């Protein structure tokens, strides 16, 4: 599969490093990330699933550290802070390959998609090609097929947008959250949104559209995040050569649990 390089976008995201320290309820004790920012990150990506849970910030950081295979301390150490600042998908995290609660999936095998708006970073042809190839990542291993439409409603609607854009997940400017997508269903279900404050690319620079789109379409089809490093559904952005990309085994198992394997005579 090739070597994975996790990109940090340091000039945009990283702040000066400080030593690890015990958690304290005062913002000034939280290194270069303040308490409100830490809580917002945890609420977004590691939400408390039951109102009956009474978890401290320390316990919630331990959950995050377990997910990312970090040293579990409950402290906001350098390694944990670095993960919080990495560019990533905007959907919450779980463990290994997972489906969304209730395992939503499309009841049909022939899906349509529509690109409602484009980024100016790439030509229309290059965007179309990246989206087509990203969907093929999933159709190559399942009975699913995808057809682009230009009019009417589509099952998966795609757009590039900025900041608040009509759903409950506003983008945050360049760096941080790169994109998000919604599980199968009516209305916004299946749709994928890409932060147009990012610098989108079709090569190994800035943010590669094919790789991010392939990840987001996993959500559009019903997969949540995986904690397997190297999996496509791992929540942090990393670069691989799109020309030699193959779907890792963890992702293949997850999508085939939902839709089955591609027929051998296809």
What would your notes on this structure say?
The chain is 27% helix and 13% strand. The two termini are 25 Å apart. The N terminus is likely disordered.
Spell out the blueprint of helices and strands:
Blueprint: E1 5-6, H1 10-13, H2 35-45, H3 57-67, H4 78-84, E2 88-89, E3 110-115, H5 124-139, E4 145-148, E5 156-161, E6 177-181, E7 192-195, E8 200-201, E9 207-208, H6 209-221, E10 238-239, H7 249-259
Parallel strand pairs: 2-6, 3-4, 3-5, 5-7, 8-9
Antiparallel strand pairs: 1-10, 6-7
Helix pairs in contact: 5-6
Features:
2 domains, disordered N terminus, two-stranded antiparallel sheet, six-stranded mixed β-sheet, alpha/beta, 266 residues
Which structural class best describes the helix and strand composition? alpha/beta
Helical residues, percent: 25-40%
- The fraction of residues assigned to DSSP E strands is 5-15%
| Number of separate domains | 2
Number of strands: 10
Helix segment tally: 7
CATH homologous superfamily name of the largest domain? Collagenase (Catalytic Domain)
In the CATH hierarchy, the architecture of the largest domain is 3-Layer(aba) Sandwich
Q: Main beta sheet: strand number and arrangement?
A: 6 strands, mixed
Radius of gyration: 19 Å
Could you name the CATH topology of the largest domain? Collagenase (Catalytic Domain)
Morphology call: globular
- Our measurement of the CA-to-CA distance between the termini, rounded to an integer number of angstroms, reads 25 Å
CATH first level of the largest domain: Alpha Beta
SSE ordering: EHHHHEEHEEEEEEHEH
Poorly predicted regions are 1-30
Overall mean pLDDT stands at 83
Strand order of the largest sheet: 2-6-7-5-3-4
């Amino acid at each position: 599969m090739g070597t994975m390089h996790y990109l940090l976008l340091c000039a945009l995201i990283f702040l000066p490093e400080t030593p690890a320290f015990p958690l304290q309820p005062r913002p000034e004790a939280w290194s270069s990330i303040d308490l409100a920012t830490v809580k917002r990150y945890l609420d977004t990506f590691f939400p408390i699933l039951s109102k009956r849970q009474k978890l401290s910030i320390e316990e919630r950081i331990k959950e995050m550290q377990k997910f990312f295979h970090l040293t579990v301390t409950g402290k906001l150490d350098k390694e944990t802070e670095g993960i919080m600042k990495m560019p990533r998908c905007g959907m919450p995290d779980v463990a290994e390959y997972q489906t969304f609660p209730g395992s939503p999936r499309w009841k049909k095998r022939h899906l349509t998609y529509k690109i409602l708006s484009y980024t100016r970073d790439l030509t229309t042809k290059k965007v179309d090609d990246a989206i087509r190839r990203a969907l093929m990542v999933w159709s190559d291993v399942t009975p699913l097929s995808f057809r682009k439409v230009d009019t009417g409603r589509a099952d998966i609607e795609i757009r590039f947008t900025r900041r608040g854009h009509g759903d409950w997940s506003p983008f945050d400017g360049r760096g941080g959250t790169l994109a998000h997508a919604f599980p199968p269903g009516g209305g916004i279900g299946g749709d994928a949104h890409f932060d147009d404050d990012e610098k989108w690319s079709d090569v190994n620079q800035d943010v590669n559209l094919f790789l991010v789109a392939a990840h987001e379409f996993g959500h559009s089809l019903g997969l949540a995040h995986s904690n397997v490093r190297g999996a496509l559904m791992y929540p942090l952005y990393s670069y691989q050569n799109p020309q030699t990309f193959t779907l890792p085994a963890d992702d293949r198992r997850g999508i085939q649990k939902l839709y089955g394997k591609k027929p051998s005579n296809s």
